[in-house]
Amino acid sequence: MQMRKRLLNPLLFYSKSLPFSSQNPQLPHQFFFSPITQFISTSSADNLNGLIDPDDPFPMQNNPRVEPVSSQDFAFLRADSVPPSQKKVDAGKFSNDAVLIANAILSDNGEFEDKTQIVLRQFRERINEKLVVEVLNLVKLKPELGVKFFIWAGRQIGYIHTSAVFNSLLDLLESSNNDHVHEKFLLEIRNDDKEVLKKLLNLLIGRYCKNGLWNMALEELGRLKDFGYKPSRATYCALVQVFLQADRLDTAYLVYREMSDAGFHMDGYTLRCYAYSLCRMGQWREALTLIEKEECKPDTAFYTKMISGLCEASLFEEAMDFLNRMRANSCIPNVVTYRVLLCGCLNKRQLGRCKRVLNMMITEGCYPSPSIFNSLVHAYCKSGDYSYAFKLLKKMTKCGCQPGYVVYNILIGGICGNEELPSSDVLELAENAYSEMLAAGVILNKINVSNFARCLCGVGKFEKACNIIHEMMRKGFIPDTSTYSKVIAHLCNASKVEKAFLLFGEMKKNGVVPD
Fold first, then answer.
1. How far apart (Å, rounded) are the C-alpha atoms in residues 437 and 329?
2. DSSP H or E run through 15
3. NCBIfam families, per this entry (predicted)?
4. Cβ(32)–Cβ(14) below 8 Å
5. Tens digit of each residue's pLDDT (9 = 90 or more) over 415-445
6. What's the pLDDT score for residue 360?
7. Cα separation of 506 and 503, whole Å?
8. DSSP 3-state of 358
């Protein structure tokens, strides 16, 4: 046992001496493993005289079950000895330079002494965004070292920190302090370069805004001002956006007013979001005033966003008026504009307006999508306007959108799926739709097969009810016990027992087991 410990200790000591080991094939393999492989190699010609029993019936040389030992067999030693904090880093995905720099930094206890400076000096000409990001990721568990390296990299001639580098640094700093950046690191960066800290804080605020963390963004805004900096235009825009998303229009206005006083204008996207939020709250006049103040000329996408907000506020007349306003400003409503308006009316069950909008858009060559047509048919069926729902099938064809499985089943299911039997006129619409459906090679689902058959039996069309299953089977429909049972029940209820028996016999003939 003591001898085993003596053998293991040098291996463990060596495995701890390197913070990272690279799996990258470009790294010199001997740089990481040569002492280990020399120590444990069994490829020596030495036959170990005196250590092997000459009377051993299973000598190693002649035993095919005994394989030579390699360094990989001892990999578990290093895996067990590396602290958990270092096991998380997969050095194999990083470049050789990044691993070497990280090893140099971590082996110097974070003091950046002369020894570390000498190692880093040889990488000066190769410092770039990718390399700095990799090193920051490698030393993520040691934020103080990451900051020192970040500062060192920023001093190198020809290199400038990019957004990717700033984001990697923020990842490093936030992970060490529960998503809050410790002030001591910020002070260290400011003491080296005030402009770098300004960029970092502005980016941090934008980062919190992007994640919807407006309260933390406000905290960092206060810290940025405490350091004597002013927010950038991008920071103001990010703050306005996050408050709009949180439905805090009052706070968004305060930020906008401060932004305006600082001489900044909103970018197009932020202004569009602001106008949409105002329209959604019914404040469309304020939105127009804001656009004028920002000296912005809205385009079709801008007006479309405002129309969407007006529809959400149920201001449909105003939304329709915006179409005229668009044309007056040389903006032509496009298919997206009309679809937004149509869906806005549909979502609020403004079915009369839907007809008006649909006619307008088709006249101008803008067509609804198949899914919108499906929703329209469903809405009109639900409202009992089956005649217009059927007309929509014709409009679909006119728009180059061939009715299919979904819309036919919606229409026939809407007509025949109610408890009360439909009127003869309405049932005729279902029959016409069914005929079109057959011609198109489309089938009913099994629920609609049963419901349609029930309605046909209810008006005395027993032959047609029986034929439904046969016709559907020719189109690939496979009826089950439930489908047969329901149709047979409808026939029995109508005293058509003979037809019910015929269908029952056909059911067994087709291999469907009666329940």
1. 45
2. helix 2-17
3. PPR
4. no
5. 998 888 889 899 999 999 999 988 888 888 8
6. 92
7. 5
8. helix
The model's pLDDT over 345-365, given as tens digits with 9 standing for 90+, comes to 999 999 999 999 999 999 999
Token digits of residue 24:
């990258």
Q: Look at the alpha carbons of 464, 466, 468, 470 in this order and tell me if their dihedral is positive or negative.
A: negative
pTM, two decimal places: 0.71
Nearest to 285 by CA among 269, 254, 306, 308: 306
Side chain identity at 109, as an amino acid letter? N
Contacts 24+ apart (CB under 8 A), 157-161: 157/124, 159/127, 159/128, 159/132, 161/132, 161/196, 161/199
Whole-angstrom Cα distance, residue 271 to residue 183? 34
pLDDT confidence of residue 111: 66
Length of the chain: 515
b/e per residue 237-260 (b: at least 16 CB within 10 A): bbbbbbbbeeeebebbbebbeebe
Task: Give the pair of three-digit tokens for residue 197.
Answer: 């800290």
Pull the structure tokens for residue 11.
């291996």
User: What's CA 347's distance to the chain center, in Å?
Assistant: 25
Return d(Cα 264, Cα 267) in angstroms, integer. Answer: 9
Locate tokens 């400003």: which residue? 329
Residues 6+ apart with CB under 8 A from 65: none
- Based on its alpha-carbon atoms, the radius of gyration of the chain, rounded to whole angstroms, reads 38
Who wins on pLDDT, 11 or 273?
273
